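Hey team,

Filing this mostly as a record. A colleague (T.K.) asked me to run one chain through the structure pipeline before their review meeting, and I want the input and output archived in the tracker in case anyone asks later how it was produced. No errors, nothing strange. Just documentation.

Input sequence:
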Amino acid sequence: MSINKRIVSLVLALTAAVSCAAAVCAADSGDAVFVSEALSSYPLGHMSWGVSHMGLDKLQKKLENSGRSLPEVRVAVIDSGINTSNIFLKGRYTDDGWNFIDNNSNVNDDQYHGTTVSGIIADGTSSNVRILPVKVNKADGTGYMSVVKKGIYYAIEHGADVINLSISAEDPKRSITILDQAIEDAVARGITVVVAAGNQSGDIRYRYPANKDNVLTVTSVDRNNKLGEHANTGDGVDFALPGVSVTTPYKRAMFVSSGTSVAAPHAAAAAALLKTWDKSLTQSEIKDIFIKYSVDLGDKGYDTTYGWGMIDLSDFDINSEVKPTHEPTQPVTEAPTQELTDAPTQEPTQAPPTESDQPATQEPTQPNTEETVEPTQITVLLGDADRDGEVNATDAATVQRAIVKMTVPSLDKIAADTDGDGELTVTDATFIQRWLIKAECPYGIGEPMV
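Output structure:
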């Protein structure tokens, strides 16, 4: 079988036993949960418990309060696309993403995986960090490594600072090399490449590209820093990050997911914040910072289960921390390598491989032999702050009480945040009131968010 024809399955955030993490395969679990329950213990504006667990919220505030003009930092999510109608992603993605499945600019997520990954990155970063959506997977979550390679070069050409690959393929002979040059070119240009370890309860040495030395490979842990179920480990795992029961965007609302493809974007978010602090940081320099600010979880020092441990940037001092002096190993202006000649341009013209291009006997690298557990949709009425099933004057009052810091035990923070800006303000209460008197309102108050 030709390597560049190898089919893969995205590292999705669903089934607890299906595999995932490298060219378009995923296996994480989706659990039913009410939004109000999922967010009851989280600070408003952060869905993932991992944001505070890794100190991303504190570093974000330091950057926002620094008085600096924060540069745009682009994180390329090479995945299944992005749901542009999700209110939690409003204003957080670029308009120059590309769909390599249909060879057009429509990057809408037919599945959910790319939206989930993108949401975690947006959740853990400031608004200057934007997602570059690169769609390489079909609606069923499958795709080809050859298309992923095109996606990496597209990200390089379109100014990505970080690339997230929550994708995985089986590599039993450790012989797959199709992404090697693309990853090397990305890293040489100062781009940080983050990869999910996969969820096969196995060794990352046999998962591609998690087994590459020049990527940051991330496995998953829960709130108690216990290894996630089915999370891959082994020599080469770099960090163990939040990846169990994480609340993430899904379609127009959210669900709770688990898996290494959920953990990886936490590292991408952390890298994006460091790039906000200093755009010249290379991947090796970012890795050094991550190691310096990691909490050891296993054997002292590096171990093959947790790598260097849990990244915690709570104490990262943007004023006193010595900035790195190293330059990228390859200048951004250097002519692209031969591989780059096959990369997509602003107007890609080469269509992704079709089934007719593949040998009839080709087998998927990660056959899905187990039943996929679809995530449970969480229906929420926008504006229904007390979740009683309708939007009324009580909801407006509930929002007002929350604004003045009065106790509101039944507050649903997401439903109450009618304009989706991540915080509760007088505007939200006003929108509900305007809707009640049938005045013009720019948001879909009273409509389901799923």
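Quick notes for T.K.: The longest strand covers residues 73-79. Residues 260-277 form the longest helix (18 residues).
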